[in-house]
Amino acid sequence: MTDFITPDFQPAIAEIFLLTMACVVLLVDVYLPASKRGITYVLAQLSLLVGAYLTLSLPMNETVLTFNGSYINDPMALVLKLFIYLVSFLAFLYARQYLVDRGIYRGEFYVLGLFAVLGMLVMVSAHNYLIIYLGLELLSLSLYAMVAFNRDSSLSAEAAMKYFVLGAIASGMLLYGMSMIYGATGTLDISEIAAFIASSDSDSIVLKFGVAFLVVGIAFKLGAVPFHMWIPDVYQGAPTAVTLFIGSAPKIAAFAMIMRLLVDSAEGLHVHWQDMLIVLSVLSVIVGNIVAIAQTNIKRMLGYSTIAHVGFLLLGILSGTDEGYSASMFYAIVYAITTAAGFGLVILLSRAGYDAEDISDFKGLNSRSPWFAFMVMIVMMSMAGVPPFVGFWAKLQVLQAVVNIELVWLAVLAVLLSVVGAFYYLRIIKFTYFDDADDNAAEIEAPTDMKIALSFNGLLILALGIYPSSLMALCVASIAA
Amino acid sequence: MFDNLPLLSLVIWLPIIGGIVVLFVSRGEAGLQRLLALAFSVATFLISIPLYTGFDVSTPQMQFTKTVAWIPSFNVNYSLGVDGFSMPLILLTTFFTVIVIISAWEVIKKHVAQYMAAFLIMEGLMNGVFASLDSVLFYVFWEAMLIPMFLIIGVWGGQRRVYAAIKFFLYTFLGSVLLLVSILYLYFETGSFAILAFHAQSLGMTAQTLIFFAFLIAFAVKVPMWPVHTWLPDAHVEAPTGGSVILAAIMLKLGAYGFIRFLLPIVPDAAAEFDWLVITLSLIAVVYIALVALVQEDMKKLIAYSSIAHMGFVTLGLFVVFSIFRQTGDTAGAALGVEGAMVQMISHGFISGALFLCVGVMYDRMHSRRISDYGGVINTMPMFAGFMVLFALANTGLPGTSGFVGEFMVILSAFQVNFWIAFLAASTLIFGAAYTLWMVKRVIFGDIANDNVAQLSDVNSREFWMLAVLAIAVIVLGVWPAPLVDVMHSSVDHFLNHIVTSKL
What we know:
The complex is a heterodimer of chains A (481) and B (504).
Chain A: H1 13-30, H2 37-56, E1 64-66, E2 71-73, H3 75-101, H4 107-125, H5 129-147, H6 154-185, H7 190-199, H8 205-222, H9 230-237, H10 240-247, H11 249-265, H12 270-293, H13 298-318, H14 322-349, H15 365-368, H16 370-384, H17 390-404, H18 408-434, H19 448-466, H20 469-480
Antiparallel strand pairs in A: 1-2
Helix pairs in contact in A: 1-2, 1-4, 2-3, 2-4, 3-4, 3-10, 3-11, 3-14, 3-19, 3-20, 4-5, 4-11, 5-6, 6-8, 6-9, 7-11, 8-11, 8-12, 9-10, 9-13, 10-14, 11-14, 12-13, 12-18, 13-14, 13-17, 14-16, 14-17, 14-19, 14-20, 16-18, 16-19, 17-18, 17-19
Chain B: H1 7-25, H2 30-53, E1 63-71, E2 76-82, H3 86-103, H4 112-131, H5 135-144, H6 146-156, H7 161-190, H8 195-200, H9 205-222, H10 231-238, H11 241-266, H12 268-273, H13 275-294, H14 299-319, H15 321-328, H16 332-366, H17 377-380, H18 382-396, H19 402-417, H20 419-443, H21 451-454, H22 461-479, H23 482-499
Antiparallel strand pairs in B: 1-2
């Protein structure tokens, strides 16, 4: 241990840049008067753009390890990171007007947001259990603070408290699982763990327990039933701009975490975690879809819909095939994009002093703004899995993965429950198109940049639905590498 | 001269592009929107005509084919083609879209552009269903089609439109998802999504049985067969006239088309095993639903139930072929049943579409569909009464109209199997006459019932020509069905030879 070898910083260049920028934004914001808060916003968005550029400038098709094998840059990480940047960019953009209207347009939102993005990027590139944990905690702690961002709202405070306590338990479970696997294998390095499991008896009790705790930790973070209790409360309690952020990009990072924890390191224990994931997935699809029907609060409804989507996401992973992994990767990316548009529309309907929280706020949107009514339809149909929107292809692929390992009953169960799910998405479209607007319903007013971004977001869902080939090929290629 | 044009792609995409153009180009000018919509629908109809004139009747092969890789990583192709089954249905679709757009001319005042666009986009999607040779492409069109119909019922429908629209969507969605799982399973078996590859794939009996029931649910909902028919009366009653017309004329045919394209050729052994089930359900539809129709007080509901009864003939004609083959050992006799089913589909499209238009014509004037609100319409609307009586008679299966041809062929083929099946099927000639003519008697004939009827004005020239074209079609098809039967002849032979060959 005498020599200190300077690690290769190149693969982590984007993360280093983002860390620097988060600190710079924090400092700059302190010296800005409230009227110039726009500078903070622009700096944060620029950081994301430059970060995306730096990530793109890395070699595309190589797998590079650095920091003594604890940090990896492979094609999957690269693709996932790009979509994390994209979705976060949209989330920051949608959030701005909302924060201004509510008098909580403060620089901390973007600082915390940037740290959360950094946490996600670290999770995606982690090649060591400790690094995964580091990224996850950076993300989670930023999110806890963001949920409580509207500090005068008791609902937000309660949601943040709940999120924090349950999140801490989940982190504990995850760490416990990691420590068991460390006990069994003597290492935290993902490749070494994988090699150890491959060469030894996979029936080891410690390993099994370790994996069980890992799965619990993951299920907590994802919000899979029966570890889903925080989702509806946090989604409802957090300011909509924060819900938008929590609901979108972190799902991509969570997918990466599953891939690193279960697939890259513990694929040899597939037989064990497959059954656990089947249970989680079945329960999530059932509870998420059925309970969502009873919701009248749009944010809560989308919370339960998230739970159902997590069930579908797990279907691909539990198949244990490359095809299934790439299907789930596609699902996670598509889900993040669709959710961003969904909450973006909720923000669009809100205005100063009024939060669009009830699904009846969509009433008569078609008369007020046919274009954004169309966007609502795209988002809801895509979430319901109706072609030609991209949500259909996401579902199709995970179902294919499940059918290919001859678990046809699981596919049948999942599609039948997606019919149940279709009902509550249709109900939103019903309010949007079939009902007349209330007399006091306001015009749709939003900054132009938000309108353009939302339109882009919606049309992206449609365009990917008509031509899903490129994104699918990207997912397949990055998993195969 | 049309050899170089991608005709099938055009009949799919031209109306969809037209729908988008109507939505965006002419903000607020309803007149221009109507004209544009009409122009696009007529253009699509004209483009579909070469599909008929250029069709080679001597071969059962797919024609006008086109295959382009769509999603290579998932082995999905944009693959189109038509045979003698799908080509006439595409023409029916393009024809009826023109009629529907004309029928909405002065009637629809709310969101005109969206109404027109919904019908144009739906036309493209329905043509896509008929033309797809790739099962995923088929499924995409099949499901996407629900969206415009859902909006049509929900936005421009009647009192209980929300209930009807959601019921319509969920029922069909439930059927379709099972279709999707079956498609995925067949891909797992064959390694291809091509429908023709599914046809060639041999399957064990267990797999065939499971797929049979998945397909049966998917397509029976759409046909609709008893007992999964309950969405139809609601959807028909609440939908605006145009929506009812497209539902009756085209959408119900999609279910029967699914039987022909998917169920029978892919799982023929299971279909032969369970043909009694489908025949029983068909006969229940023919007899029981006819009785239900008899007691309806709402004209649209009556015609909706009559549609279910008539579609029972289609499924009956398709599924008696196995018994005929078992008894006679050759497929010639069975061909009558399949061709009868096809003729019945086209004919029912014209007749039920026309009847819904007739109800629409009266509804626009009186804003009521209740039979009891009418009486003696012939006194104030003589020309209209003439059309209505003609279509009603065609609906009862009067010889000389298209309604007779299909039913007669199916009853004849049923006779080869069993007298009682034929007897029950033939009872429709009595029940059908009873409910249709009784409605006509109460609505059209008799003395003028009330002041509202006394103030009715006869059809204007738009309505006259719309109904006249349909009347001509019904009569021509009734006295001279050969042009229709000829195009499907070799496809039917090929189809029958395929489905009586075991795939075990």
